[in-house]
Amino acid sequence: MYIPSNFADPVAEYWHLVNHVTVWDVGCERQVEISGPDGSEFMEYLTPRDLSGCQVGQARYIVLTDERGGLINDPVLTRLAKDRFWLSTADSDVLLWAKGVAYHSDFDVQIREPDVSPMQVQGPKSKDLLRALVGPRVTTLEYYHFLEATIDGIPVIVTRTGWSAEVGFEIYLCDGSRGTELWNRVMEAGKSFDIRPTGPSEYRRIEAGILNYPSDINLDHNPYEAGLGWLVDLDKKHDFIGKAALRKIKKDGPKRKLVGVEVPGDEVVRPWLPHPWPVRQDGEEVGTLTALGMSPRLKKNIGYAWVPFHLSKLGTEIEIVTPAGLRTAVVVKKPFIDPRKEVPKS
Prior knowledge:
Blueprint lengths: L9 H10 L1 E5 L5 E5 L3 H8 L12 E3 L2 E2 L5 E3 L2 E6 L2 E5 L5 H10 L6 E3 L4 E6 L3 H9 L11 E6 L2 E6 L8 E6 L5 H11 L5 E3 L4 H7 L34 H10 L3 E8 L13 E5 L2 E12 L4 E9 L8 E6 L2 E8 L9 H4 L1
Parallel strand pairs: 1-13
Antiparallel strand pairs: 1-9, 2-7, 2-8, 3-6, 4-5, 6-7, 9-12, 10-11, 11-12, 14-17, 14-19, 15-16, 15-18, 16-17, 18-19
């Protein structure tokens, strides 16, 4: 499915996200529903993250791994009932993966793609807008929790999540025939808050250290390399796919790492790289740059690069092969802004 990516200048959209409220059509963010008598056990088997503390009404950021520890996806999980879950996925075949796993197992589960399409409402005024749409109870909704509601009779699920690292919500439309109604209702209610339709902000997600599947991470990478080792609970009581491989990777140590980089000087490129750019050191190609943009707030070129582990130390200098020639880059700490996520939690 297509996703509307920009309606205006991306820098102007960035500032509107940071200062006001934006709405994104992310209907392409398909859901995979897992349900049935063994839904909970099956979900534990799919992910290395321990879900025993995830209650009905809560959500979790998780990873799904294959038998080698490779990243199938990094979805947001929503627990709708004891044995019913949604996985909100990026671009990969999670539906087919889960069906294949279930077919070759003894789990009694049903796996399908429900008629659900999300929209994101992101920015500091989003809480006021959601209050106008669904009432005051949304103001006490905690980060990574959700509630069921209706907007002018349209059934929705509202989650306190988003891809912006700002205060934000996702509205999951549960009746696909009423998408235009929902969009118009949100836009009408948002007029007094200066709402603007945009796409997801590449600038803001890079600043926040948010990863994009499959451009930053994919099946060839594992959680420890990608800085997502905190999502792996090797000692959880449930078995999971890739456990032995991930245990070995942790013991041996990763061979490469996804690092934050800063490229000094003028703007190199607007976000949305068409292809990864090579990373070199001493004339030898050693990795790839996966994302880069001039942060409007930091006034710096910042991004991510895959490099051998011995080049991942902070302060290491590498070279980026750009269409305009070689540029020097420095390995820096990420996230670049708000590492404790105090903004979206507020």
